[in-house]
Write a structure and sequence with these properties.
The protein has helices spanning 6-11, 62-69, 110-120, 125-138, 154-167, 184-201, 212-218, 252-269, and strands spanning 20-31, 34-46, 51-55, 77-82, 85-86, 95-98, 172-176, 204-208, 221-225, 232-237. It has a single domain, classed as Rossmann fold. The strands form two sheets. A six-stranded mixed sheet has the order 6-7-8-3-9-10, sandwiched between helices. By secondary structure, it is α/β, with parallel strands linked by helices. A hairpin with a 2-residue loop joins strand 1 (20-31) and strand 2 (34-46).
Length: 271
């Protein structure tokens, strides 16, 4: 099955990328007799092979927006599309998701967890095992392929979850604060590893985070959202060269970009 192994994916990187469009999306949660507007008129154009960040104050609807992109939640108004296809249900072959919690199956090994989405799609056992082992090697966990989740640290579990997301070989990978529960050293290390993996596979990535440093370091563009109901305040272009290096965090330009994003968030919190 072409595209499932890391080698095959690397050879075809960029040939079948897909972007994602969010068109005037509003979402209202109905809570009994009351209604809560979480998002209001959100529009985004996520170009293919872009590492796209979303930041904003707590409760602004970032995670709800990501769930709609994944087809796990329907907007009250508006449309989300991949190419000409409206996202109205999960599309696992086109859109993968990595959540804040690793959500690994405790009775399965790291390899079995990584290959599980391919098992659900009926992929041949030898093909999916090879793909899973290659992805685990890429995230530095080749020697832990036969370990179960309780034998792995928090950072290692997230590596497995990221490997599982990439192993599906989707055009688009959605990531909802995947490093939020980790200590700062581990999340910086994993962020750097994620960039190396993304550079090798060139997926379209939408990355939700509360860390402004993380957003500037990882992303090409960052959508800054207002307090609830979430609206797009500004799309900040992160015009830093790639590959990114830790030294960039100490530069004046990095600081200006981070300060610009923080100023937008600070203003909306004061409304």
């Amino acid at each position: 099955m072409a595209g499932l192994s890391v080698v095959e994916t690397e050879q075809t990187a960029g040939s079948a990328g897909a972007g994602l469009r969010v068109e005037n999306v509003t979402h209202v949660f109905e809570t009994g007799a009351e209604s809560l507007m979480a998002l209001k008129g959100v529009s985004l154009d996520v170009e293919a092979e872009t590492f796209y960040g979303i930041v904003g104050p707590s409760g602004c609807g970032k995670s709800s927006l990501l769930l709609m992109m994944a087809g796990l939640l329907l907007p009250s108004e508006g449309r989300i599309a991949v190419g000409d296809k409206t996202v109205s249900k999960p599309l696992p072959e086109e859109i993968g998701v990595v959540f804040q919690e690793s959500s690994l199956l405790p009775w399965k090994t790291a390899r079995e967890n990584v290959e599980f989405p391919l098992y659900l799609r009926g992929i041949d056992r030898r093909v999916r095992e090879r793909a899973a082992l290659e992805m685990l090697e890429l995230v530095g966990l080749g020697e832990f392929a036969n370990h179960r989740p309780h034998e792995l640290s928090g950072g290692m579990k997230q590596r497995v979850a990221i490997a599982r997301g990439f192993c599906q070989d989707p055009d688009i990978l959605l990531m909802d604060e995947p490093f939020a529960a980790l200590d700062e050293q581990t999340r910086m290390t994993l962020g750097d590893e994620l960039l190396h993996l993304w550079d090798r596979n060139k997926k379209t990535v939408v990355f939700v985070t509360h860390s402004l440093t993380e957003a500037v370091y990882l992303c090409d563009k960052v959508a800054v959202m207002s307090a609830r109901p979430g609206e797009i305040l500004e799309i900040v272009d992160i015009d830093l060269p790639r590959p990114r290096t830790y030294d960039m965090m100490a530069t004046e330009k990095f600081g200006r970009l981070r300060a610009r994003i923080w100023e937008l968030i600070r203003r909306t919190q004061q409304r």
